[in-house]
């Protein structure tokens, strides 16, 4: 009797997957799953009526990405016809919609479906998921072998937790849930917040409002403007990018190389930190030209502790306009017609815009019940834990995108999402080709050691534990270890490239060697077109046996001229720029300019997380 196909080694069993969220992470996961796998089913539950995640939800005036537009794309999926140097949220949303359409990903989607609960069923080796269908009001119950959380962390508006907010009778808006139908023309506006969202909102609304009072609790670092900072590409530039993909590729590589060369700015005692601090202080002082203002608006904390704002001097200039009043205080309470600052002064306003960012506590919106009734909501409320941003100790067959300690501010973020997808798919493949494998999860000891390493790095080397409020510490100071990756994005890519089995707990039911199959037949023998002597060759082109050799291949070592390590002329500035000897026009064209190659139409920034500026 001839052997059966399913008796071959590494036979693939069916795997059922549920993914929560259809933003950049969920769509990347769906694409990569579809590209490599064949015996699976996937359902993506999305709470919004359309895909895009953060870029669907955020639509406040001036909302844009703080990464050059050509680089805010998947590494393998360039967009040649971006209209602006820094793309608007609407254009980025269109990019992801087009991506889903091109690769047929909408067949996996269930929009207007909100997950209410997820529970691990040990006997079944599955997750049971309770979902609310917002369109019909029905409760849907589903199950899966693997549960993927692609919810992101910038998805829950952080309204001020202050008395009287509900009593305010004017128009109340939030930067993360903005009502575009509201007209601000000739309105008296109160803008609360001095983060990156406020820095985009103020220059956008200042020309049309009657008056705006902005509450500034703490300062932030601003990168200088350039003439093309927020400009639109010309039709001719777009034509060149569309007709010559090499031009787009060169620009993307230039920008990416710059972003990946500046990580040492996040190290407290680095030369790049000192040089950037001196340059940014000098550029901000040129605009302010007032010692009192400089003390209030130029930070004393390290550059990078709080998100740095690109093209930020337009914000600084807006602060100095006649119809803008700065209130260097937090809000104490709200009333029916305005708010009261911490010094007891009342401020009236017809519209309040809370540019107060997001709840970055990472606590899930719904109960996630693991083995022994453990609720991840309760555990993370006490202490955030994560295995390198992708998994949680002893929560089986569950993975996260951009979980705590992912590289969200360390360099390009979309490539980190791609790396996380590849990492997760490694375990899906292991599960699918191992018939006795029931579950996999990181061990508690591995997570504990990872968190210990991260905490030590943050407290001794990084700028993120300096005296500032940021999304990494949930807008508090000193209450938790900053939740970004303890290294650069390139560092993260190398860390995630090859899973470390000793950090994981694998649970089997049956003989773990059943994956060999009962008939001793290889997969090659079931492929009528393969070369059955594939290992016979004229030279040794096999996989390298050491990690450093494999890394040389991946990183294309030797393909580029030598560079000066841990320096970046675009951030430190040339000597002439630093000494103020060049005119503005000359600076824009200078190769070592602070943040952009003007001729290429690109741009580079210090804070290159790739999310919205929050």
From TrEMBL:
Keywords per UniProt: FAD, Flavoprotein, Oxidoreductase
Record's keyword annotation contains Ribonucleoprotein: no
Listed GO MF terms: flavin adenine dinucleotide binding; N,N-dimethylaniline monooxygenase activity; NADP binding
One Pfam family of this chain: FMO-like
Keyword ATP-binding in annotation: no
Cofactor(s) listed in the protein's UniProt record: FAD
Record field: compositional bias (Gly residues): 601-614
Biased composition (Acidic residues): 585-594
Location of the region described as Disordered in the Swiss-Prot/TrEMBL record: 558-614
Membership in a protein family: Belongs to the FAD-binding monooxygenase family.
Name of this chain's protein: Uncharacterized protein
């Amino acid at each position: 009797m001839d052997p059966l196909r399913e008796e071959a080694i590494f036979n693939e069993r069916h795997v059922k997957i549920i993914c929560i969220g259809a933003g950049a992470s969920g769509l990347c996961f769906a694409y990569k799953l579809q590209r490599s796998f064949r015996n699976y089913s996937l359902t993506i539950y999305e709470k919004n009526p359309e895909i895009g995640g953060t870029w669907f939800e955020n639509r406040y005036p001036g909302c844009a990405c703080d990464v050059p537009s050509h680089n805010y794309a998947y590494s393998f999926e360039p967009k040649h016809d971006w209209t602006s140097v820094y793309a608007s949220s609407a254009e980025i949303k269109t990019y992801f919609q087009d991506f889903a359409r091109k690769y047929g990903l909408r067949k996996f989607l269930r929009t207007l479906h909100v997950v209410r609960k997820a529970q691990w069923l040990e006997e079944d080796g599955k997750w049971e998921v309770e979902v609310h269908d917002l369109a019909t009001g029905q409760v849907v119950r589903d199950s899966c072998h693997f549960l993927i959380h692609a919810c992101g962390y910038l998805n829950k508006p952080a309204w001020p937790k202050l008395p009287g907010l509900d009593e305010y009778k004017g128009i109340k808006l939030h930067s993360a849930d903005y009502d575009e139908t509201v007209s601000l023309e000739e309105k008296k506006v109160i803008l609360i917040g001095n983060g990156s969202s406020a820095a985009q909102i103020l220059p956008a609304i200042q020309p049309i409002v009657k008056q705006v009072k902005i509450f500034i609790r703490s300062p932030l670092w601003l990168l200088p403007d350039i003439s093309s900072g927020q400009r639109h590409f010309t039709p001719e530039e777009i034509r060149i990018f569309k007709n010559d993909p090499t031009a787009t590729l060169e620009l993307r590589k230039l920008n990416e190389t710059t972003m990946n060369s500046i990580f040492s700015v996040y190290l407290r005692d680095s030369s790049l930190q000192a040089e950037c601090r001196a340059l940014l202080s000098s550029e901000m002082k040129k605009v302010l030209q007032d010692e009192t203002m400089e003390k209030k608006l130029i930070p004393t904390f390290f550059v990078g502790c709080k998100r740095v704002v690109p093209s930020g001097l337009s914000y600084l200039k807006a602060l100095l306009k006649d119809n803008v009043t700065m209130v260097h205080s937090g809000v104490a309470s709200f009333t029916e017609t305005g708010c009261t600052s911490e010094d007891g002064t009342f401020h009236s306003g017809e519209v309040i815009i809370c540019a107060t960012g997001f709840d970055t506590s990472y606590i899930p919106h719904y109960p996630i019940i693991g083995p022994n009734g453990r609720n991840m909501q309760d555990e993370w409320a006490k202490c955030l834990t994560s295995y390198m941003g992708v998994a949680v100790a002893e929560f089986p067959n569950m993975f996260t995108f951009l979980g705590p300690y992912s590289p969200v501010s360390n360099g390009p973020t979309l490539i980190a999402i791609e790396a996380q997808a590849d990492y997760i798919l490694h375990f899906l493949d292991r599960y699918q080709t191992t018939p006795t494998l029931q579950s996999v999860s990181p061990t508690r000891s591995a997570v504990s050691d990872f968190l210990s390493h991260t905490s030590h790095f943050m407290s001794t080397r990084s700028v993120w534990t300096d005296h500032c409020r940021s999304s990494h510490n949930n807008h508090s100071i000193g209450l938790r270890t900053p939740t970004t990756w303890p290294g650069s994005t390139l560092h993260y890519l190398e860390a995630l490239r090859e899973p470390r089995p000793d950090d994981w707990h694998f649970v089997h039911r049956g003989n773990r060697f059943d994956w060999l199959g009962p008939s001793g037949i290889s997969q090659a023998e079931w492929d009528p077109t393969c070369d059955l002597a594939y290992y016979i060759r004229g030279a040794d082109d096999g996989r390298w046996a050491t990690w450093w050799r494999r890394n040389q291949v991946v990183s294309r070592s030797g393909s580029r001229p030598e560079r000066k390590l841990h320096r970046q002329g675009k951030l430190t500035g040339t000597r002439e720029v630093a000494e103020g000897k060049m005119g503005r026009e000359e600076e824009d064209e200078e190769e070592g300019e602070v943040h952009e190659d003007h001729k290429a139409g690109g741009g580079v920034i210090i804070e290159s997380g790739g999310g919205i500026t929050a």
